[in-house]
Each structure stands twice: as structure tokens, then as C-alpha cells.
Here is the input.
Amino acid sequence: MSYFQLSDLFNIYSKNLYFCIYCFLILLMAKKKKILSDEELLALAAENVVLEETNEPPTSPVIVQKTEKKSKKKSKNIERKETPSKIKGQPAQIEDKSKNISKPVKKNKIDTLAVYRLPKSKSVSNNQKNNPIFLKFLQKVEHFLINDMLIDGASKIVLAVSGGVDSMTLLDVMAILAEKYQFKLAVAHFNHNLRGADSNKDLEFVKNEAKEYGIPFYFASGKVKKYAEKNSISIETAARVLRYNFFERVSRNFNADFVATAHTANDSVETFFINLFRGSGLTGLCGIPFRRQLIKDVLLIRPLIDFKKSQLIEYANIRNIKWREDNSNSLLEYTRNKVRLDLIPKLEQDFNPSIIDVINRTTKLIQSADKLIHNYVKKHLPDVIENVSSDSFCINIQIFSTFDKFVQGEMIQTAFLKYFRLSPPNLAKIDRILDLLDSDTGAFFEITKSITVAKDRNYLVFFKNFEKKDVNFIISKIGTYSVDGYKINLQEVSKRQVKFSSSANEEYLDFDLVPSLLYVRNWKEGDSFQPLGMQGTMKISDFLTNQKISFLERSKVLVLCSKNDIIWVIGRRINDKYKVTEETKRFLKVELINL
Here is the structure.
């Protein structure tokens, strides 16, 4: 039990004299153990606030939690540093930098006894209580939380707060409802470091507002520009990836059930147009969903998704909410800003002043259609997907071709998201992928810098790009050599030791026909040899195709050769010209051994 928990119990049970004496004695003992002070913990946290730079998916930020105490208004800052988490969605491991730092807080008796009350500075005035606009707004959010999301007093919700009018409105309305229903709140702020001093001012502003509301505060910062450059993605995408990675960490640390963002109806319409222009599938035209799974046991919810921006500003003015304006929202270098500042006002002025409402109704219809198609794709996707690994999966072309072209595109997008956990390719790229169905074996298309798809006989093979190892070195006729995770062993054996087997990893050659110096190298286009048991020569590419060697595996095939001849396609077949015959007097055993 920590010093602060005992302190709370002391206040709660102050009428019990014996209990007070018990707590007082243990508090003295705790002090003697030199528990880190607030300042020491804060200094410890400040050393590693910035996200690490990496080519891997975003590293985990250091999270600082500030918990306001009800009685003495003191705080306890906790630092927790995590190891990087890969984009596959694996949860990061938490590394404690002090034996006094505990694991993420679980629900306990202290939580259930705590009662949240709005501070006087944030309380609802009588005029506000009688304002129909305020009441209607509050009731709509309340209905969403209680009736749609089934949130109750045991729920824990992380609020994503940037400092703008949207998120500050979210913070205020959620705090009011938290007082009524007693669900637990925490504020999370991510500093993108994109606006210099203004970014730091946003952080301090949100931190102070969270303190005023009496709500725990988490923050982290990241080098968004460097992350975008290293991963060849846009600033907007990099910011989103790092921000949501941070939200995942906070939700685990706070033991949250929900993470709430302040997306509005305007944001959903902007997303619709952005996805329309980039050529996304049906799912992309659904706008922003009111909820989705963030991580296991944590839902991402949007309580304000049915409100327009103007309604939030109206609410904020009624409640005298302070907020900060982000100057970058006016820069037209960002696609979303162009849609918000140029396209939508033009559509409202020249076509329909209610375009926001019209598009939002349309996205809801698309959502219903998308749900039906998603269920259909989910049911039939296992029929076409084969050979799934952490780096690749295959689509059976014969079965895949029986589906409509539209469904084929939805299957590719669903598989891409499911197996690679990356944003699905757009419609233009889907068309390029589908063109491979009628292409020759070996045709390929680079979907992204990290993902390629290739036609391999009866399959489309999707795989993460890897560096092909360039192998080319000289060896002697006798010896053992290591190469690419294998050993190649060459030794002379007697006739009695020759024991032919069905394994292509063990072969016997005519010793006198093999030259003293040999080469081990990658096979290349144009290479040919006479496969054992065949008349005439064959290209190695055709041989591998006939052997049904996959597109990925054939890139790893090596050959043992002289200057002019392929003697052995290693682990596959020897050249007929070097086989053992009745005239053979000396015998060379060649063997491929897995390490």
C-alpha cells in the first residue's frame, strides 16, 4: 500500500481513532523508507519525455501521470518508459526505472470510494442550466454514453485533448456527466512539436485545465517530422500514428475501457472527401465511425461525431470555455485544411448550404452497406487465403476469380489490413494488383516501399520486401562452407559409402569430372543446365517453375558451378553430365546441411 493510498484512507476513516493511529504509524514507516518525492519523480520523467527516433513503428512515449488529490491538492508524478512496439500491434513491454514505480493501476477500493465533483470554477450556473441549447447538447452526449456505449460508474475513459475548441468542449461536457454518473476520467495530450513554442504552450494550457477540472493528466511528445521522413509518410499520417500509439499506452496505464476523441460531423465529412480523392474502398467512404476497437478491451469512441463545429463553438461560448487556436489549421499545405477551408465552403455556397448534413446522411447509408459487404467478405476470405506467415500471405487465384471484381478489391483491402496491419491500398493500386491475375508468372507490383505482390502460377503472393543476399564466392572441391544459414559439405567417399536417397539435399557426383575450384552463387536469369534424367538443357527459371518453387523461395536458391557449367542447383537437382555411372572410379558426396 502506497503512502498516498494510506493518506486517503486516513481522511476517509478519520472518525475511527484506532484506525487513525494504525495509519499514522505506517505513514511514519513509509517516510523512513525514503519514497521518492513529487519533484524527484517529475525530474526522473523529464529526462526521457521525447519519443525515440526509429524506422520501426513508433516507439512508446514516456507517460507522465499527474493525479490530483482531493484533500491536500498534492500530486504524484509517475514515469514509465516502454520498449518499442512493432506495427503488428504487439503490446509494448513496460520497463520500470525505479522499484517504487508500480504497474498500471487496477481498479481497487480507493477508486470506488473516490467521488468526483466539479470544482466551483467549472460548475454549471443557473443561467446555463436553463439554456435550451446547453441542455440539448448535454442530453445528446449523455444518451450516446449511457444508452449507446453503456457507460456506467465503473467505466474509465481517457479524453484526447489538444487544447482546441473541440477537445476542450469534450473535456467540459464529459466532466459534467462524470459528476452525475461517477465514471473515471483522465486527460491525454500529445505534443507533436510541429509549432515550436506554441506546441509547448498548448501542453501547459491543457495541463492547467486538467488540473482545474481535477482530472489526472498524461502527456508525451514526439518528433513527428523526423518520423515522417524516415518512414516516407506525410506529416499528417506520422502525427496520427504517433498520437494513437500514445493513446494506446495511456489506456493501458490508466486501465481504461474507452478512449474518447473530439471528432465532429465536419471532421467526418472532411474524411469522406479525402478518402474519395485518394480512391479508397467503400470503408473509406463511411466517414469517421462513432466507435472502433483501439486495442483489446478498449474502445475508441467519438461522443461529438453528430455535432457540427458551429454547435461546439456555441456550447463553448455558453460555458465560457477557454481554448487555443492552432495556426497550422489555416495552412493550405495540408490536404485536410484544403478540404475544410476551400472545398466545403465552396460546396455550401454554390450547391447546398446543408452539405455537411447531406454527406453525413450519405456516409451512414454507406456504413450500412459496408457492414453487409464486410460480413460477406469476412465469411469468404478464408476460402481464398493460403500460406499465411508473419511476412506474407497468398491468394488462390482459381477460387478468387469466382468473385465479382468489387468483392475481390474488398478482399484484398481486408487481407492487407488483417495480415500486415497497414492502411489498405487505394483503388488505383487495387486495379494494378488485379491486372496481375492475367499476367505471366513472375510479374509483380510494388504496392508500397515495404510491400510487394507477385504472380506465382496459381497464386498472388503478398510479401514484405526483404534484401536479397548477394552470394558469390569460390570454394575447393573438398571442404565445408557456411552460407546463408546452411552448410555445404563436399567430401570424397568410397564406392561402398555411396548410398543414394530421395533427398535432394544429398547427392553424389563423378569426382574426376568436377573441377578443383568451384563457385557458389545466386542463380540468375539465363542460367541453364541439364537436369538429372533429362535430355537437353533447361533454364533454371523454367525448372523452378516446374518444381512449383514459390516466388519467395526461388530468390533464395543457390547454384554450385564451374566457370561454364551449373553442376548442382543446390538442394534441388544435379546436372546429368556429372552423375555417377558404371565408369565412375572416384566419388564426390555433396550435401546441404541446415544449421
